[in-house]
Write a structure and sequence with these properties.
The longest helix has 32 residues, at 372-403. The protein is mainly alpha-helical. 64% of the residues lie in helices and 1% in strands.
Length: 644
């Protein structure tokens, strides 16, 4: 396995994975914050919910008109210090003047200290804003909690503060709106239990909690750091798994973008659905798209990765969630692997839907939760599993157009003989069509043997020679007479005509919107191999021998970059050469195949492909079995004499 080099394409790959992780981590954090911060209908309170004194204050006194303009006057330290001195002087004057004894004389000093202390504390509590409204809210809140003062005395203190603040700030020529302080009594007192533990919250309860600004809990920053680190570990494992089992897609970033896009959409849908109802989350839908667009291994990795990432926000019933998601997702991936037609999606829907139905029922029985509601939920699970694969059929053409990639279904359609390009090949170059059909069958058998993509190999085999449609008469398999046109032209000209079928094939494939993977096979199926027949014809002419260059008789390349392209190259060479076999036997066929493939290996045509020597041995054995069946002997039927 070649090393992963740091080059432009790989930098794009790393950047794509990094950006997608940031998006996913942000979505998970949002859902985590929303789940554990805010109460929802149906939540059961684990503890008593008590009315906070400060929040109660905001509810009780918000009808007061105390404020400064639009609550934007900032109380500067110096002006507020002067204000405190004014209040202190006022309470000191109360003690000196018996006619103003609105409080018991023995309490005046105590009240003076309490008021000063509470106002200074309220000033220090305000953080961003230093407005009088905020300061007074804290002051009134704390004053309510002071023991030893009657309700009448507290009301008098509030009126005094309103009056003094109005007078003080008017003297300072600052805009200040003042009115008689008329607090609205609340039915909820500070510190009162508003909702008891074990209560299932209703919409009415939620309105009360929102009114009092009561949150489920405040999440420390360390919780979010833990979420980021845990999700990053899972994502990193997924990234390395991709590099290990889908390295051939490093040169096809479109499939990487599709994979990451589907992963982001899976997390996004999970954030929306899971906090409410996870039974209807369609993980088979996403898993099938990945499996038929990339491969089986990445489809399975996708199921595990998405399930683990979403488990951070599922809350309770995590065992239910992971069991149903993993089993239904992996089952759907295996069922659609190498599809033979569209009917596989309906069959997959029935199997996965039935699996979901029984999983939900058995899990509820196992957890002693079985009821009539279980049957309803199981039906939802069935319909989710049933419709997920069918929905894939509807969205696949859109995905193929947006990302310009080939899926298993697309490759299956390309191998249909009714495809316009194959119909042209059959009508205009029947010999090439028959050759391509045999190459396709050889390639499918070899690809299945070594674990390559048989559908891509099949399509590549069918289309590898479509460039011959431009000048079909130049190729021996399409010449109906014994006369060979190349006998009348120079070998160099013949070579140019033969080599050009690769370039012509690529142009034709693009015109018919064939997938990039198939176009690559057309471009690479001859590599940089030598057109040996015409090269040897050319060197037979002494006058031109010194001027000849072997490079002029080689295809421009590139060499095969994938297993499928290498398989088509070998199948093409073996099929073409097999037409020269006479009286074939098993030994003759075996040696013939080995010699053809060995020439290709010695010429260095496979050095850039991921084929191993073991793969090549398996391909030789597969080709041998195929050609033996192709050249099998037939019995001679006896002639029957007619009776007179």
């Amino acid at each position: 396995m070649s090393k992963l080099k740091i080059k432009k394409e790989n930098i794009k790959l790393y950047f794509s994975f990094l950006i997608s992780y940031i998006i996913i981590a942000t979505l998970l954090s949002f859902s985590y914050y929303n789940e554990y911060t805010f109460w929802k209908s149906g939540d059961i309170t684990p503890n008593d919910i008590v009315s906070s004194s400060f929040l109660q204050m905001k509810d009780s006194w918000k009808s007061s008109q105390i404020g400064v303009g639009k609550d934007i006057l900032n109380a500067k330290n110096k002006s507020f210090e002067d204000f405190l001195n004014t209040i202190d002087e006022y309470f000191s004057s109360l003690k000196l003047d018996p006619s103003q004894h609105i409080f018991p004389e023995e309490k005046i000093d105590e009240i003076r200290l309490i008021v000063n202390e509470l106002l200074l504390t309220a000033f220090n509590k305000t953080k961003n804003s230093k407005s009088l409204r905020d300061i007074f809210n804290y002051f009134y809140n704390d004053l309510e909690l002071v023991n030893g003062l009657s309700s009448e005395e507290k009301d008098k203190i509030k009126k005094i503060i309103v009056k003094l603040s109005s007078k003080f700030y008017l003297q300072k020529k600052l805009k200040f709106i003042s009115s008689t302080f008329t607090p609205r009594k609340s039915s909820i007192k500070p510190g009162e239990i508003v909702i008891k533990s074990g209560t299932k919250l209703t919409n009415k309860d939620l309105k009360l909690l929102r009114k009092l600004h009561v949150k489920k809990k405040n999440i420390p920053i360390f919780n979010f750091v833990s979420l980021f680190l845990l999700s990053f570990i899972i994502y990193l494992l997924f990234f390395f798994y991709f590099l290990l089992f889908a390295k051939e897609f490093l040169k096809n970033l479109k499939k990487v973008y599709l994979l990451l896009t589907i992963l982001i959409f899976g997390v996004l849908l999970g954030v929306v659905i899971l906090p409410t109802y996870f039974y209807i989350f369609p993980i088979p839908f996403f898993a099938i798209i990945i499996a038929i667009s990339i491969n089986l291994n990445i489809g399975i990795a996708y199921v595990f990765t998405l399930t683990l990432l979403l488990s951070f926000i599922i809350g309770g019933k995590i065992f239910y969630f992971m069991t149903i998601m993993m089993l239904s997702g992996i089952t759907s991936v295996f069922l659609v692997n190498n599809p033979k037609g569209r009917s596989v999606f309906t069959k997959t829907g029935v199997v996965v839907g039935t699996l979901n139905f029984f999983l939900i029922i058995f899990l509820d029985i196992y957890k002693f939760n079985f009821s009539i509601a279980t049957a309803k939920i199981a039906l939802l699970g069935f319909f989710t599993g049933f419709f997920s694969p069918i929905m894939v059929l509807g969205i696949l053409p859109i995905i193929e157009d947006i990302f310009t990639i080939s899926t298993s279904i697309k490759l299956l359609e390309l191998s249909d003989p009714s495809h316009p390009l194959l119909k042209r090949l059959l009508d205009e170059a029947p010999g090439t069509y028959q050759h391509s059909a045999i190459v396709s069958n050889l390639a499918v058998a070899a690809a299945s043997t070594i674990g390559a993509d048989p559908l891509l190999a099949r399509a590549g085999g069918f289309y590898h020679d479509i460039g011959k449609l431009k000048r079909p008469y130049l190729f021996i398999e399409n010449q109906m007479s014994n006369k060979n046109i190349h006998d009348e032209i120079q070998p160099t000209l013949s070579t140019l005509a033969i080599i050009s079928h690769v370039k012509d094939g690529v142009e034709l494939a693009k015109r018919y919107n064939l997938p990039e993977e198939v176009i690559n096979i057309i471009r690479e199926h001859h590599g940089t191999s030598l057109v040996s027949y015409f090269y040897f014809q050319a060197i037979k002419k002494p006058s031109k021998k010194d001027e000849l260059s072997e490079e002029d008789f080689r295809y421009p390349g590139p060499k095969p970059q994938s297993k499928e392209a290498a398989i088509v190259m070998l199948a093409d060479a073996v099929e073409a050469a097999s037409r020269t076999l006479t009286n074939p036997t098993a030994t003759k066929i075996r040696n013939f195949i080995k010699s053809i493939i060995q020439k290709i290996v010695d010429d260095g045509q496979l050095e850039e492909s991921p084929l191993t020597f073991r793969d090549i041995n398996l391909i030789e054995e597969t080709f041998e079995k195929f050609l033996l069946s192709l050249f099998h002997t037939r019995i001679e039927y006896p002639k029957i004499k007619q009776k007179e």
